[in-house]
Amino acid sequence: MKKKSFFIGLLILGGMTSACSNNTEKTEDSDAPLMEVADDPETIKANEQALKELKEQQRIEAASVTSMTIDKEIHDFGKVTEGVENHCTFTVTNTGDKPLVLSDVKASCGCTTPSKPEGPIAPGKSDKIEVGFKPNGKGVSEKTITITANTNPRITVVKVKADVQ
């Protein structure tokens, strides 16, 4: 009985597989274009203008790319007490020849609060990202801080970690 059930199951599965893989029927839309092309002069002009603006924005962004270093990738607080605010600093240095702009600095968790420099950092100069960390659970905790800047790559990630008691 088990052999018959197994054999029937294989036949059904085999039939389903072949039915799915051998489906070669064409649909009515198979010869339809993948994308409609605008032939209206106003739409064409608007698209050309949008493309021109996008290329100019990319040119400006490429011309303003710089580089940076950060004094450490990870700050280890060591043993800390749950619910107590801890602070650390990451020092960011502009190692390029254009002003460094940190457009965004975000933490992976609400218990970690970074603050970024407000203005651009001149070439050769440094500034600080201040980080507050108030853990709300016991055990080893590691949080990330994502820095978005006019660098290549645009995103840099640093971490804070602690053994929360």
Describe this structure in words.
A four-stranded antiparallel sheet has the order 1-3-6-5, with no helix packed on it. It has a four-stranded mixed sheet with strand order 2-8-7-4, with no helix packed on it. A hairpin with a 5-residue loop joins strand 7 (139-149) and strand 8. Mean pLDDT is 82; it is low at 2-27. It has helices at residues 2-21, 41-63, and strands at residues 68-70, 74-80, 86-94, 102-107, 112-115, 126-133, 139-149, 155-164. Helix content is 26%, strand content 35%. The protein is of the alpha+beta class and 165 residues long. It starts with a helix and ends with a strand. The chain has two helices and eight strands, in the order ααββββββββ.
| Distance N to C terminus | 61 Å
Major sheet details: 4 strands, antiparallel
Strand order, largest beta sheet: 1-3-6-5
Low-confidence stretches: 2-27
Coarse shape: elongated
The whole-angstrom Rg is 28 Å
- Please bin the fraction of helical residues: 25-40%
Percentage of residues in strands = 35-45%
Give the rounded overall mean pLDDT.
82
Secondary-structure element series? HHEEEEEEEE
Please, how many helices? 2
The count of strands amounts to 8
Strand-pairing-aware structural class: alpha+beta
